[in-house]
Amino acid sequence: MTAWNLRAKLLYILLFLLLAVPFKSLWAAEDTAHLTFQKPVISKKHSFLYAIKKGDALSRIISIHLGPVSSEEKRKIYKIIKDLNPKLTNFNKIYAGQTLRLPEKSTVSGNRNIKISALQVSSGEIPVESNLINKATTGIFEKSNLPTGYRMAVIREVIQGMNGTITTVGNYYIPIPQAGQVTIDCSRIPVVELPDGSTVLLDFTERVPAPFKSMIQTHWPSYRFVTVNYQEDPAQILQKVINASNAYAMIRSQKPLSLGDIPHIELFVDWMINEKSAAGKSPYLKGISFLKDRTQILPKSVKDYASRNGVTLTEFLEGTGLVESPVLQSRLPEIMLLSSTSAMDLCSALLRFLDYQPTKDVDLKIFDQSRDGFNLAVKAELLVRKDNRQITFHSKELPRQFMDILKERNIDVITFDEKDSKQAIIEKTLSAMKIPFSKGIFLYPVADQAGKPRATISFPAIKMTRDKSLFHFIEFSMDQNLYQLLYDKWEAKLIRF
To answer: How much is the pTM?
Structure first.
């Protein structure tokens, strides 16, 4: 028997033995291998072109043309569509008039995928380096310990808060154009999909070979592999994921966030996630903080104010997870309004608020005929009494001689200049009534952390304490929820003029 005939018989026997072994047994022998390659699912001859219409969404198109499918099948169909339409980078951004190539219903339902084998590829079908399929790499995706409990909850919360997804169960399919597709076991390699079209695969095993990463990223530039360690804290893992994306960056915060004009809030967070480029739209901004105890939780009113100013705040209690701010329940007094159309109107409204009863248009006698040989009086537009004094308010300056005469009679004269602002009128009235006050920018600290406030609320005002109550005279519209916080924490009452 020739050597050639002997070799042929041995190969025939080997092939027979391989075919005789059930596929399930072969898979069990590769128990630690969780990467499989599959032949192309769909070719162009098993697909059709579809013109997008106004109001179309990809999920609706799939339901109409391919029938009801499970979430696992839908994920698979999305991958097929991406394979058939390489230029489609975002399923949520399709527009009327655009043409997509979709798989035929019979092709999808027929499950035409042919699994070759775990980490075994026929020559010439898929362009991977040989060291991916040789015996030495059989266990490259061995079982790993994914972060559990608190750490995975943090990662999931942040990703979902960005309108992204993280898949940690089942399989994830990556098509290789003209060759096949790769199946990723998400329980070993979680897959993060972000709204900018980036797909980040978390290699917790730290053993995915570089040639395989290169192969995927060559065909799909939006795919990234990130090597992480399950012992890393969630912020470190998140930073790697976010910074591997196309449009987002996560950095440790070095200075406070500046929110709003009046009132103004300066806010300290541990980390910031922002968009690298947000042309034509408001950039995505997210602040993340890790707290040691509940006293450091920011009030809901501060978080809501930040959200209205374009920043989403998320807080985690170390070892526990996401924390929500308590809702304030106390009854909030209304912001009193000192309505006015003139300086005298404002002065009168303030005097009444201070529990004085001003009298309008009172004649003040300066000269008396019986004493001085003639009568002369001036009109006080407002007059109010306090103790043994009288205070008069005028819109025009009186002659110095008249003012001296009135002063001798224990009458104080206050004149409003036509250029006086509303704030100046408030200040002059309080001074005339000898009521202590202060003016400026007032700061209120919120949620201390290591002896420092995590946020400060500031606004311009005239501050007055009366009957053990704290009042702020303000000239702007105060956020109602921040007012609730000021009242609950400092019993501060607001009066708008």
So the answer is: 0.66
